[in-house]
Amino acid sequence: MTGSDPGSDPGRNRSGNVGCTLLLGGSFDPVHAGHVALGSTFMALLGASELRVIPTVPWQKSALVATPAQRADMAELAFRGQPYRVVVDRREIERGHASYTVETLRELRAELGDDAPLCFLIGADQLARLDTWRDWRALFALAHLCVAARPGFSLDGPGIPAAVAAEFAARRAPPEQLCSQPAGLTCIAAELAMDISSTRIRTALEERHGEEDAGEDGKDHRHNTGGPIPGVLPPLVLDYIEQHKLYKKYN
Ligand SMILES: Nc1ncnc2c1ncn2[C@@H]1O[C@H](COP(=O)(O)OP(=O)(O)OP(=O)(O)O)[C@@H](O)[C@H]1O
Ligand SMILES: O=C(O)c1ccc[n+]([C@@H]2O[C@H](COP(=O)([O-])O)[C@@H](O)[C@H]2O)c1
Q1: Which atom, in ligand 2's list, is nearest to the CA of 125?
Q2: Where in this chain does the record put each Cytidyltransferase-like domain (predicted)?
């Protein structure tokens, strides 16, 4: 586990209560500006003391491109320099098998104690699929659930399974309430509008490299030309992708 920008006392939040930890799990293949915005938005909204970023080995997604260690390294780079405490927690990629969030939350609850506020962050795409998660109803006894808007996905209406919508609505609370109790509430950041996805970034990078490779002067054009995606990838992550020759069709 590694941290960056320890900031002030990680054991306490702004109100001086027991530390309030936000959890951002993801495949991060690669991590992008939407993930950073998701973490930053809720850090500000909730007044939390720490963001714990948890790269996963997902059971619902096949064939990731970068290795687990590379995805964790990129997560560290993406959040470097944020004005709040960030810890990249590698437990899920060290488990040796695909992870269920409920398992991770049980571990964290045992480590951090019954009183520690824990808030799991997701985007609207995962809200629409929450009822496919392992033991999803058990999540609320372990953590709060915070959902951010995402272009192309709705936060309510027919896209959200009825059982999820009902559970979510019954637990809805003002954001400032979440850090004063351990688990069981939900909140929404409806204003996030980052139209970014890892899949689209991988496709854009593959296409860019394909075009560079097609030079007719016999020279190797496979280098970083500044990228077709400024603002979408944190600069240190783009550098890492180039150095490790990730997301190239011809690898
Ligand atoms: N642009 C975004 N806005 C809000 N939430 C996002 C955004 N991108 C990802 N998330 C959320 O971040 C978490 C991790 O996402 P993940 O690593 O799967 O990236 P992704 O962009 O969703 O990947 P892919 O496009 O390959 O499905 C998920 O909860 C997801 O909903
Ligand atoms: O626990 C589950 O069954 C489950 C199913 C799908 C996704 N998740 C978690 O949701 C987070 C985002 O997942 P993903 O696939 O969008 O990268 C990540 O922490 C996953 O472990 C968890």
Answers
A1: 16
A2: 23-203
